[in-house]
Amino acid sequence: MRIAVVAESFLPQANGVTVTLLRLLEYLSGRGDEVLVLAPAAGRGQKEVTCYAGASVRRFRAVPLPGYGELRLSTPRVRTLEDHLRTFGADVVHLAAPFLLGWQAIGAAHSLGLPSVAVYQTEVPSYAKRYRVRQIEPLLWRRIEDIHKGATLSLAPSSYACGQLIDRGVHRVAVWPHGVDRERFSPVHRDDALRAELGGEVLVGYVGRLAREKQVEDLAAVQHLPGVRLVIVGDGPREAWLRRVLPRATFTGRLDGPDLPRVMASLDVFVHTGEMDTFAQTIQEAQACGVPTIAPARGGPIDLIQHGSNGFLYAPGDLSAMAEQVRWLADHPVSRAEMGMAARESTDGRSWDAVNEQVTIHYRNAIRFAESDREAGHRPARRWLLTR
Predict the structure, then answer these.
(1) Backbone phi, then psi, for 205, in 5-degree steps?
(2) Phi, psi (5° rounding) for residue 311?
(3) Which end of the chain is more exposed for a tag (fewer CB within 10 A), N or C?
(4) 63 — phi, psi (to 5°)?
(5) What angle (nearest 5°) sits at the alpha carbon of residue 36, between those of residues 35 and 38?
(6) How far apart are the first and last CA of the chain?
(7) How much is the pLDDT for 97?
(8) 362-368 contacts: CB < 8 A, separation 24 or more?
(9) CA–CA separation, 316 vs 31, rounded Å?
(10) CA separation for the pair 110, 155 (Å, rounded)
């Protein structure tokens, strides 16, 4: 199969969209599929990746998003994208978290009569609230609706995210979750020397971007609990501010390689504070490490956490409930260990190969759907405002 992947972000940007794509490209390479990646250009001074796992990566001029410089925005002409797709001879177009580049690409796919699979991975419209531009939220949702109504098939990483699309009138929606490397993220990496270095009887951690939408400041509700030590792993635009808000926490910065699973496996409790995650991959990684997890009952965590079994869910915004859940786990080490074992067991069968095998089935379904649509004379409704 020849698959054109249109990525709203790609290496060297490190985020959930990129990580998911890297595992997919590795899987497709192992199958012998031919893949072309179309992505925004890297920032000034950054190393531009032109090939990954046998896939050629072609770049388009991009500018940084104001206030969030790591995200690069690119809007090439539709005809330019058509030329790339036509020359490559794509069988299907995979749109990863489409919004700007993906918006143009879906128009190009339609012009060429190519089936498209749009993956909803980022709840962009809700970011408007966090970044104090609430007035544009309806416009952002309209863009999401138009893209996914125009796609042949839409995928989302959780039942909650699927429901968001369905509620907005998008048909042909399926769940495509993320995988986890259970060898890399494993309880065997728990390190008592590291735990002693970090201090505290019970280590409560967060791993992820230190950005406004992640709500890491909510951890202030637990930083004064007796015997609890907060560990914050990650970097981002709010790091300096969070260091002032969470003075009792240990900030490690961003960790890669073996350091990340070593820290995660050394935690006693993992708390994910963000309320806008369509999946929340770090929850799954913590679970694979045998760590009970706590998160708001919204978005991806609803599928990952079985309340009272492998962790706890709390009502969004109810920080007193979250603090009480942390306190209870800190005070009950036996129950905490049992939840940790249940957390590890809950990741069984979630390897990257297992979930990526699903997407190849979705590709074939999209090709079949597109053929049946053409035979029936159906064309998806769309409002294209494209630069050709």
Answers:
(1) -125, 160
(2) 165, -160
(3) C
(4) -125, 150
(5) 145
(6) 28
(7) 93
(8) 362/117, 362/153, 362/155, 362/174, 362/176, 363/1, 363/3, 363/91, 363/92, 363/94, 363/117, 365/153, 366/92, 366/115, 366/116, 366/117, 366/152, 366/153, 367/91, 367/92, 367/115
(9) 42
(10) 18
Model pTM score: 0.92
* Burial class of residue 192 (count of CB atoms within 10 Å of its CB; 0-12, 13-18, 19+): exposed
Enter the tokens of residue 37. Answer: 């990646």
Matching residue, tokens 């070593």: 262
Tokens of 275: 């309320």
Contact indicator for 290, 267 with CB cutoff of 8 Å: no
Strands (E), the chain: 2-7, 34-40, 51-52, 55-60, 63-65, 68-73, 92-96, 116-119, 153-156, 173-175, 202-207, 228-233, 250-253, 269-271, 293-296, 311-314
Q: How far is CA 164 from CA 83, 126, 272, in A?
A: 33, 12, 21
Q: What is the mean pLDDT of residues 92-104?
A: 95
311 is written with which tokens? 């962790």
CA 9 to chain centre: 12
Lowest mean pLDDT across 133-142, 214-223, 224-233, 353-362: 133-142
> Facing residues of 270 across strands?
205, 293
Closest CA to 325 of 303, 308, 306, 338: 308
- Strand, coil or helix: 203: strand
Bridge partner residues of 51 (DSSP): 56
* CA pair distance 307, 297, nearest whole angstrom: 9
Q: Residue 81: which of 100, 55, 53 has the closest Cα?
A: 100
